[in-house]
Specification:
Layout (H helix, E strand, L loop, with lengths): L11 H7 L2 H4 L4 E3 L5 E3 L9 E2 H10 L6 E5 H22 L5 E6 L6 H11 L5 E4 L2 H11 L5 E3 L5 H12 L4 E5 L2 H13 L10 E4 L24 H14 L5 E5 L9 H20 L6 E3 L27 H19 L5 E4 L2 H5 L3 E11 L15 H15 L3 H24 L4 H25 L6 H9 L2 E5 L3 H4 L1 H6 L5 E3 L9 E6 L8 E2 L12 E3 L9 E4 L6 H4 L10 E7 L7 E7 L4 H7 L4 H17 L5 H14 L16
Parallel strand pairs: 4-20, 5-6, 5-12, 6-7, 7-8, 8-9, 9-10, 10-11, 11-12, 14-16
Antiparallel strand pairs: 1-2, 2-3, 4-13, 13-14, 13-19, 15-19, 16-17, 16-18, 20-21
Helix pairs in contact: 4-5, 4-11, 6-7, 7-8, 10-11, 13-14, 13-15, 14-15, 21-22
């Protein structure tokens, strides 16, 4: 057994290391002296906001849980840092061209998020990207004449008509051809309008490269990718433009390696490949202006990169400076070799811009502990299997060595399984089965405690199994399927941690489960310094005080992807700005209510008026039958209708017993 009497006192620095905050926070989050999570939204400033104070203020303004907190200043900081880093790379390389950020609104289409990105990007001439007709229509009303809009995704004739209309109005809207049929349709529509060479539609082309992507979305690149023209199709398109005398309308070449590029070596290869195509077209007289390297600037969600516990899908092995340098220097190298002008570089780095600004706050509303209460005195004449478990329990109290502990837990497992089988066959009374269950869990906890005290490396499989069995289930007020769908769908890891009590050492192993009735409704992979990532270090739950958990880096994709499993719908939001002149260094600019039960029901054709009519008829029949009195019936009906205004999530207030 290890002597822990001289163990150093727990500090907030220990908490930051335990939850690997410096790995995923990009400097925006940390633990303050009170043991609370804090946000530092303004780089270069010591301004700090206590997240628990933000929660209290949001609740005071009527917000309910679960709750999205948006720290809008982080968006501005990310936009500035991205553009400044590219400007530094361009200056260092003496690159004879420019860089422009393009924000793909599919990452987070919320109007206020897009508006914040555009406002922060004004000094850098930022543009937008849309990928559907609905996104196109939203974007057209936002961009005016000065903002570039790239149109990716499948484009039918109505989308192409909208794009032609925008070009006619003088807007900088560029369709990026994903399939050759789109090019044909665009030309047909232009011909129907009688557009001459001077008014011919301008366009870009996405090219299928031989370079494949890396990480989870590797299939976005390469010859088998869903979108893009093959090299023969690109040459055919150029030939068509030459025949029409409109080669100046091809303004952009584009490729995309996926949403999260894990390795810059793959990026360098793709950039060089597209730069060679760019040079070939210039030598042919096609004066392409823009080279769009697509999305993929990675975000480290806390996963490790390399080593035994590698998790490349949740991590990256590079920083922003390296990313910018790879692109700038690779394009410059090819352009100088081929003696062609250097294009304006574009990137669609939506994930890197928005991921950090948004977090989900969810209260714990209960804990299930895999355990059994102590039993009363053993009934007389216990069966042999019960005596075996009693003997194993006594042995667990005495032994400390690894081999003896392993033997004890194996004996306990065998006796437990035998007792369950006998009970199924009717040969073991429920009273004795209860004693076996209680003894087994006590043995398991004692053996695990002693295993952990031995601090073995590697950890024996028996210890790992016991940790899994003895992990508490923390029931939190949220839905995995609504708020972090990527965790369920593709195993995306998100940083999850307590938001307060971080000056206390967490002494429980926890797994977070949601409100849904689905067994998949849980978070089963965590970011921490522990080798076992299937559980999260948590504090002892105290039912009489709030215990909030935060899920970080949910600002990209999650809020749009979420589904309505169990009719748990959109959650509420609070939009936060930093200000040293305000109490707590922040102010709440806006709150958005969570979707109500009645609105959620309406989406699946349960309309409030019809529900009210049906319930009224039901209660009237019960009153006429004498089941309830009229006053009681009206109380029940009014309560039903009142609840339709509630949110779809649990009310965290508990009913108190009368004193």
């Amino acid at each position: 057994m290890t002597d822990t009497s001289n163990k150093p006192a727990w500090t907030t620095t220990d908490a930051e290391e335990l939850y690997a905050i410096k790995t995923w926070s990009a400097g925006f989050f940390g633990v303050n002296d009170e043991g609370h999570m804090a946000v530092r939204p303004v780089p270069g400033s010591d301004l700090e906001i206590d997240i628990t104070e933000v929660i209290d203020a949001a609740v005071a303004e009527g917000c309910t849980f679960p709750l999205i907190l948006r720290f809008q200043d982080i968006i501005s900081a990310r936009v500035r840092r991205l553009n400044q880093t590219f400007q530094e790379a361009i200056a260092e390389a003496d690159y004879k061209g420019e860089y422009r950020t393009i924000y793909p609104i599919k990452v987070n289409q919320l109007h206020e998020v897009v508006a914040e990105v555009m406002e922060a990007g004004k000094p850098f001439n930022i543009g937008l990207e849309c990928g559907s007709r609905a996104e196109l229509m939203a974007s057209l009303a936002l961009i005016g004449d000065d903002t570039m809009l790239l149109c990716n995704g499948v484009k039918d004739h109505s989308s192409l008509t909208l794009i032609l209309n925008a070009q006619q109005l003088g807007q900088q809207v560029l369709p990026v051809i994903e399939k050759y049929t789109e090019f044909d349709q665009l030309l047909i529509l232009a011909d129907q309008r009688g557009l001459d060479k001077e008014r011919a539609p301008h366009l870009g082309v996405r090219v299928k490269l031989s370079t494949r992507g890396s990480g989870r979305w590797f299939e976005s690149g390469g010859s088998s990718s869903k979108f893009g023209l093959t090299v023969p199709e690109l040459v055919k398109l150029v030939g068509e433009l030459e025949e029409r005398g409109t080669t100046d309308t091809l303004e952009l070449l584009h490729f995309h390696l996926g949403s999260q590029i894990a390795d810059t070596q793959v990026l360098r290869s793709a950039v060089k490949e597209i730069a060679q195509f760019y040079a070939d077209l210039h030598e042919r007289g096609i004066k392409v202006k823009f080279l769009d390297v697509g999305g993929g600037l990675g975000v480290n969600y806390g996963g490790s990169y390399g080593g035994e516990y590698e998790d490349v899908d949740s991590s990256i092995n590079y920083g922003l400076t390296e990313y910018a340098n790879v692109i700038v220097f690779a394009v410059k190298e090819i352009c100088e070799q081929r003696n062609v002008p250097m294009p304006t570089l574009l990137s669609e780095s939506g994930r890197a811009i928005t991921a950090h600004h948004s977090m989900l706050v969810m209260p714990v509303i209960g804990v299930h502990r895999p355990d059994a209460p102590p039993m009363r005195d053993m009934p007389p004449k216990p069966p042999v299997v019960v005596k075996r478990m009693v003997a194993a329990y006594k042995e667990a109290q005495k032994v400390d060595a690894r081999g003896a502990l392993t033997e004890v837990i194996h004996d306990a497992i065998d006796a437990h399984q035998e007792a369950e089988q006998l009970a199924r066959l009717g040969y073991l009374h429920i009273e004795f089965l209860a004693h076996v269950e209680s003894l087994y869990w006590n043995i398991a906890r004692e053996v695990l405690r002693k295993f952990q005290a031995l601090e073995m490396d590697p950890i024996p499989v028996e210890q790992t199994d016991l940790e899994a069995q003895l992990t508490d289930l923390y029931l939190a007020d949220f839905s995995v399927f609504q708020s972090i769908l990527d965790h369920w769908a593709i195993g995306q890891v998100f940083p999850v941690m307590p938001l307060d009590r971080l000056d206390e050492e967490p002494n429980r192993r926890g797994q977070v489960v949601d409100l849904t009735c689905d067994s998949d409704g849980k978070i089963d992979q965590y970011v921490s310094s522990h080798l076992n990532k299937s559980w999260l270090p948590m504090h002892e739950y105290r039912p009489d005080e709030p215990y909030y958990l935060g899920v970080f880096l949910v600002g990209a994709y999650q809020e749009i992807l979420g589904d309505a499993h169990n009719l748990l719908g959109r959650v509420g939001e609070a939009h936060i700005y930093a200000s040293a002149d305000e109490p707590g260094n922040f102010w709440i600019e806006e709150t958005i209510k969570a979707i109500s039960i009645k609105d959620m029901l309406s989406t699946v054709q349960y309309f409030p008026s019809d529900l009210d009519r049906r319930m009224t008829e039901l209660i009237r029949r019960k009153i006429e039958a004498g089941v309830v009195k009229p006053a009681e019936g009206m109380r029940i009906l009014n309560n039903y209708n009142k609840r339709l205004e509630d949110t779809t999530y649990c009310d965290t207030d508990m009913v108190k017993r009368a004193e």
